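Retro notes - structure team

What went well: the batch runner handled both jobs without manual restarts.
What didn't: labels got mixed up in the shared folder, which is why I'm recording both outputs here explicitly, each with its sequence directly above its tokens.

Job 1
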Amino acid sequence: MRKRIKDIIMSLLLVGVAVVCIVRWQAWFGTPEEPFWADENADYVFPSLADADCGTSDSSVYADHCLTILVLGDIHNNLSAADYDTLAARVPDADAVAQIGDWLHRGQNYYYQTLLREWNAGALQGTPVLVCPGNHEYTKGFNKTLSPVWEHAFPHPQNGPVGVPGASYYVDLPQVRFILIDTTPLARMVHFTRTVTWLRDKMNEAGERYVVVMMHHPVFPAGKGRFNPGVFAFFHHVLEDADLVIAGHDHSYMRRKPFVVLNTAGRRKEQRRLPHAEATDTTAVYSVLTFPDYPVPAAGGDSLPVLRTYRLQDGVMIDSVYVQHH
């Protein structure tokens, strides 16, 4: 009888292990993505600032007027074409859209179909896009991989740190240098150190341009239990010299100059106590970043860029701050 009970227990344990392995296979090791690019969807590509000739004041289409950027936080496939129409109506003069990761809910190809169709059906269609991947653009598990469709959907320059995985890059406009850091695949110390060295060099080379850094994982967390020790330890000193640092991931709004954390449509998380924060909010928000005409003016008053933040639900402004040039 005792042997029979032992055999039953062992059988149940083996069945349990098998079930867990089947359920968690993707989370541990990742799985092949479903086929997607076919038929009329094959040409769905987001227009990118990387494709624009915007390196100098003479060649840029943005050189002769104020530059306005619509900034979106975590979205997780929760915006519809109607939502994009609403944002386009609220920011009718947007020259570009900047998004700081987790636009998708998880890095599987079929989510791109929903995302691209909604974007291409909305009033923002054709607006250039700046975007860095978030952790939800990657498959889960030990073998984290960025969907091969991501670079097709979001073309970007290949000017990131050498020898570092991911999609880090920078783009120059006459008024501002955008530096986008893909923080998800930074798992080894050498990845962090090479990225920090590259980041410092690109900040120093920006000249008179403002420096705006976009990254998915924030240096200072806005949500409970959201602290990222590697990102904080390696980036917080160098990024204090940036003019503006925009992040997401924490599904809350927090501002501590020059750091801003945004959540546009992701499920809200509980906000932690933030004695260091200058402004906080737990609702879904978006921001509008407005730069003055090129060249960069002297610091002071209305000549400075402004970051204004609005509630997604009703468009009411909840925060506004000048972006000071270092």
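Job 2
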Amino acid sequence: MFESLPASLGVFGVASVIIISSGVGLSLVADRLADRTGWGEALLGGLFLAGVTSLPDFAATLTAAADGFPKLAIGNSLGSVAVNLAFLAVGDLVYRRANLEHAAASSSNLIHATLSLVLLLMPLLAMVTPSFDAWGVHPVSVVLLVAYLYGHRLIREDRLRPMWWPRATAHTVADEPEAVQPRGETLFGLWLRFLVLAAITTLAGWVLMNAAETIVAETPLSETVVGTLFTAFFTSTPELVTTIAAVRYGALTLAVSNIVGTNALTAIVIAFADFVYVGGSIYHAVTAAQQLWLVLALLMTSILLLGLLRRERYGIGRIGLESFLILLIYLAAAASLPFLGD
């Protein structure tokens, strides 16, 4: 879409600002909807808010895959998973009363984190096994869609009939509706605002990836570097903004569920990228650099899951040990990426 490099850089910056600005409104509206609908922060954050904040990723990844940039597409998705977990660690830094994973204890968040781990393992399985596809689509992509739907059925059942409860402590922040609702605020109005902000973030994500394709073509930067670091970061900024905003609003369960829900949905984005990529199965169009980032994403998710189970009150610098390790892994991986090749 953009043939000029200066124009692409300018559009990239504008689209990034729009995505960030929309994220602030989304977190507030999602918190209101969780209270008004009675669905709770874990379900609404893990499904609806995660779905909306994933839209820039969705638009960017599918655009790159359809335009024949598989490494840019997969790099964007996997980089988003990793940076989202780093964003949750930033949220832990913002919340100073206790470790965020301790305060936001929720069985739904545990299920969502486990689901994201399972779903991300499936693309890795497709990448390391012999190349196979039917009409250009790997069977794993279909299995991913079914597994995601089943996972959300489990989360819905847990909301209705929980079989496990975290032990409440002085630092636990329960997911409870606000006693006083803003006057004149209707449920229809909230959903309308939510959908408008969703449309804005989707359009911005599509524009951002078109600009990124020109940056890849006009600079020495590889698809892997641009996708895994730059587009992944900026298309994921709604997760950063909504996480920090949710923490400041006291909607801690919403903050965690948004991240783990988004990462579970990212696996579905990869599956859809396989459907629109015309060069065969997209899983076999990637290199060792993308596989490494997938392994790192799995490692970071596993550390988060352990943190949600262990529920450490305080750790290094008043954040959890898992948050410290996740930040360390992400920063080390980002610093080494330019040396890994395309």
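One thing worth noting from job 2: The radius of gyration is 19 Å.
We'll revisit the folder naming next retro.
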